[in-house]
Amino acid sequence: MTGERVPLDRLLDFVDLVARRLTQALLLGIVGVVSAQAFCRFALNASLVWSEEVSAWCMVWVVFIGAISLMRRDGPVSIPIFVTMLPPTARAAAVIVSRAAGLAATLFLAWYGALVVAGNFNMLSQATSVDTRYIKLCVPISAALMALFAAASLAADIGRLCRSGGDAVAVPGARRAELPLQEAGAEL
Q: What is the rounded CA–CA span in Å between residue 167 and residue 157?
């Protein structure tokens, strides 16, 4: 291949970009709502009844939507020290099993999250009368997108293993563990 990006990579990059921008917008929303609440409470001596509820919902969405970008960058916490000690083929197998487990976990979370959203577990919120199903919707959406990233990483690692052997499969987090703290943070 001549370095040309396949359409799937462009789609994954687009999904990642949207997730990052949505996370940023939600964080700005949290800052705005909390600032408005502080101003109203201390300057106007009146409270915004809905502010705590809305900022908590935004935080839930930040966590789940932000996890999408982490999955794209192999950002979930990993401790690669023991895996890096394995011989190349065993190391590649451990990475592939780990990726398959991550894919299974995200698929389960997407499935169960969809059941919760569609089920009778929802109610109207106290302050805003919003159906909580819309708050919980971030779980199956983010889990499904995380599963997409996990499947792409799994397929890429299996492809590298089949083409080039165990040395071609990188251990997630191993490079970050070798970098100085400042560079490791910048890599994310």
A: 11
Q: Please tell me the pTM assigned to this model.
A: 0.83
Q: What is the 3-state secondary structure (H, E, C) of 33-93?
A: HHHHHHHHHHCCCCCCCCHHHHHHHHHHHHHHHHHHHHHHCCCCCCCCHHHHCCCHHHHHH
β partners of residue 131: 124
**Radius of gyration in angstroms for the set of CA atoms belonging to the chain, rounded to a whole number:** 21
Q: What is the mean pLDDT of residues 8-12?
A: 90
Sequence-ordered list of residues with C-beta below 8 angstroms from that of 60, at least 6 positions apart, any chain = 135, 138
Give the span between the Cα atoms of 148 and 106, in whole angstroms.
Answer: 9
Domain span holding position 60? 7-179
Tell me which of 19-28, 32-41, 95-104, 162-171 is least confident.
162-171
Phi then psi for 131, rounded to 5 degrees? Answer: -65, 125
CB atoms within 10 A of CB 25: 14
Count of positions (residues) in the chain: 188
Distance CA 44, CA 127 (A): 20
In the chain, the number of structural domains is 1
**Contact call for residues 82 and 94 (beta carbons, < 8 A):** no
